[in-house]
Every structure is written in C-alpha cells, then in structure tokens.
Design goal:
This protein is of the alpha/beta class. It folds into three domains: 3-106, Nucleic acid-binding proteins (OB fold (Dihydrolipoamide Acetyltransferase, E2P)), CATH 2.40.50.140; 112-273, Rossmann fold; 286-379, Probable gtpase engc, domain 3 (Ribonucleotide Reductase Protein R1, domain 1). The protein has helices at residues 3-17, 33-43, 146-159, 176-189, 206-213, 228-236, 286-292, 294-300, 317-323, 329-347, 351-379, and strands at residues 48-56, 59-64, 67-72, 90-93, 103-106, 112-116, 124-129, 133-139, 162-168, 194-197, 217-221, 261-264, 270-273. Strand 8, helix 3 (146-159) and strand 9 form a beta-alpha-beta unit. Helix 3 (146-159) packs across helix 7 (286-292), helix 7 crosses helix 8 (294-300) and helix 10 packs across helix 11. It starts with a helix and ends with a helix.
Length: 380
C-alpha cells in the first residue's frame, strides 16, 4: 500500500472519530471492558492496543490510542490460514519509536467470517473478525438468486454474527407492490433475519440501516455489482469508497473495493467493506446451514427414523411437507446441496466424516444392487 493510501485511511478514520466523543480513544471502534481485560498482560509489556483497519502484503494499518500506525505482521504468521492477521482483529502493537513497528499478538476473536477458498486444497479464508452484523447486499438490478442468499446466510450464521439482508438499488423497482413481494420472497428464504429494501440513490431505508448497525461492527458482503461501495458511502455520509457503473448487459460489476477496509461510522461503530465475492464456498458451516433451513430441521424431528435422509424413507416428515406443498422443492434441494458441499469440505480434514461418507456410499451401493437383483427376478 502506498503512503498516500495509508494517509487517506487515517484521514477518514480521524474525521469520523470526531463525530462521537468517547472516554477511551478506541471506544468508537468497539473497545470495551472485556477487551480491556484481555489486554492486561500486554499493557504490562508496554504494548499498545489497536484494531486492524487494513491488511496488505504482510503489513497492516492499525488504529491505536496514538492514531493510525503501520505495522509489520512478521511475528504473527501461523501455519493455520485462519489465524493470520485480518481486518477487524484486535492486536497488541509496538509503541512508538520502533522502525518497523510490529504486531506482537492477536487478542482472541469473538467471531470470524470464514469461507472456503477456490484452491484445490480448499483452505479456509477469513474475511473479517470480531463482527456483530453480517450485512448481505443483494442487488435488485438483477433477478434474485435465492440459493446464493442461503449460501451467504449459512456462512454468516456460522460466523457467530447476526445476519442482515439489504436489498440494494430498491429505486429500480418503482412498483411498491412488486418490491413488497421481493422482500417477502427473501424473508421466506431467510427465517429469523431482518430484510431491508434500501436505495442509496434516494436515501430510502438508509436511516433504518444506520440505526441497526450503529455502535457495532458490521461487515458488508456480496457479489460484484451489488452496490456495496455505494451503500458504504451512504452509511459513512461521504464519498470514501470508489464506485463504478455495472454492465447493462448482465447487471454485473467490476471489483471496486480491492482490500477489506474498516471504516468508522459517524453515528458510532465501524463498517468493514469487502471486495465482491465471485465464489462463496462453505467452510465447516453445518450449524449455519441448519440455521438457514430451520424449518426443515424442525420437520426432521418428526421423522420416523432419527437418521432419516429425507430421500425415500417411510414416515419422513420432510417428504410429507414436500408432498402437501408446505415445503417448496427448491428449498429442500438447496438444503441438500449445501449439506453435501459442507460435508465434502469437512471430510478433507476429518477422518471420521470421511469414513461415514464411505460407509454411506457402500450402503447405497448395496441397496442399488439389491433393487436391481429384485427387478431382474421379477423380469424372469
């Protein structure tokens, strides 16, 4: 990162900080009594507390009581990719005087938003740490992809953060009735999650969203062209993030945000803006999937067999709901797809899960052979 970009980040962080006076210099960024207690042993070492606002090639910008400083992460380079320094982390950093200054340790994370990388090794990648709200931006400029929304939600629930779906570019749906139907569709897809229709262009819904995220840490997620940077500017009250027009032919956008940035909000709290995500792979998100499809999990409790796969078993409450129309087929297929994907990811690092998958394959193979033999016997 260039020195100009570093000074730019310091300028908008400082400007936003002045909007809300606080007793502790880091209170605006989420510092509280619990973090204070965690930091006691590092304070005794004369280290400074700070929150990571940007990470770039082994270095990071950290906001501290003395301002925003540049620090090297050389001393916290673990083998586990999920333990690298990430935007949103609270850290202990060297005091002034050192050149370079180093991040000495990470404080234990309260939450972490993790996805699977697109590499063949399928490693986990942490996108943001210590997040209270995961804002999933869904553009209304193109047809809703409910399956993608469910995928984002599974990761959000698994992270420990509270998901929030924001339907961006609501001004592109001039018919109030049509907009209401779209909101209802997403609400059905996202039980227990607040859904807001927002237009950064007209200001519709921005005040409600600001009130929801005020005083907390929020991460802004979505695909390219979802309007995240425009939404971030609306919440910040100034043009901080660069915005590019989307392609008219397919509604897709280019990556405007290229790094994950932690930005102080005028009303208190912070926002982590992220680059558009092309792929959203699950990473050990079994509980998150269950939360997204809570109604299916509840139905499954009424199945005759406790290990019912909801395929062709007798007394399956899930299949009964499918037949009577109370459970949409799309919803069940999406549930099955995410469970299979998550199981494959977990199996790569868990021998017990791998053994269970092989056992299921053998059982299904035996059942298939038995069915074929029975069929042949009837034909003879």
């Amino acid at each position: 990162m260039s020195s100009s970009s570093s000074s730019s980040s310091h300028s908008f962080l400082s400007t936003s900080s002045e909007a809300v006076p606080a007793a502790h210099p880091l209170a605006l960024y989420g510092w509280d009594a619990d973090w204070e207690a965690e930091f006691v042993p590092y304070a005794a070492q004369n280290l400074l507390p700070g929150r990571v606002v940007r990470v770039d090639r082994g270095q990071c910008d950290v906001v501290t009581p003395d301002g925003t400083v540049r620090a090297d992460t050389e001393f916290v380079v673990p083998r586990d990719p999920l333990k690298v320094v990430c935007t949103g982390d609270w850290v202990a950093v060297d005091p002034a005087g050192g050149d370079p200054r180093y991040v000495r340790t990470l404080l234990p994370r309260r939450t972490a938003f993790v996805r699977s990388t697109s590499s063949k090794r399928s490693e986990g990648q942490i996108l943001a740490a210590n997040v209270d709200h995961a804002i999933i931006a869904v553009p209304l400029a193109v047809e809703l992809d409910l399956g993608r929304i469910e995928r984002f939600l599974a990761l959000a629930w698994e992270s420990g953060a509270q998901p929030l779906i924001v339907l961006t570019k609501a001004d592109l749906v001039p018919d109030p009735t049509g907009l209401s139907y779209l909101v209802e569709d997403v609400e059905t897809t996202a039980p227990g999650v607040q859904v807001l229709a927002v237009s950064a262009a007209t200001g519709e819904g921005v005040d409600v969203l600001s009130a929801v995220v005020s005083g907390s840490t929020s991460v802004l997620l979505g695909v390219s062209g979802a309007g995240k940077s425009t939404l971030a500017n609306a919440l910040l009250g100034e043009e901080v993030m660069e915005v590019r027009a989307i392609r008219e032919v397919d509604g897709k956008g280019r990556h405007t945000t290229t790094t994950r940035n932690l930005l102080a909000l005028p009303g208190g709290g912070v926002l982590i803006d992220t680059p558009g995500l092309r792929g959203v792979g699950l990473w050990d998100a079994g509980q998150g999937v269950g939360q997204v499809f809570a109604e299916i999990e509840q139905l499954a409790e009424g199945c005759r067999f406790h290990d019912c796969a909801h395929g062709s078993e007798p007394g399956c409450a899930v299949l009964a709901a499918l037949e009577d129309g109370s459970l949409p087929e799309r919803r069940l297929e999406s549930y099955r797809k995410l469970l299979r994907e998550n199981q494959r990811i977990v199996a790569k690092t868990d021998a017990r899960v791998r053994a269970e998958i092989r056992r299921d394959w053998r059982l299904k193979g035996a059942e298939g052979r038995a069915a074929m033999e029975a069929k042949r016997g009837r034909i003879r």
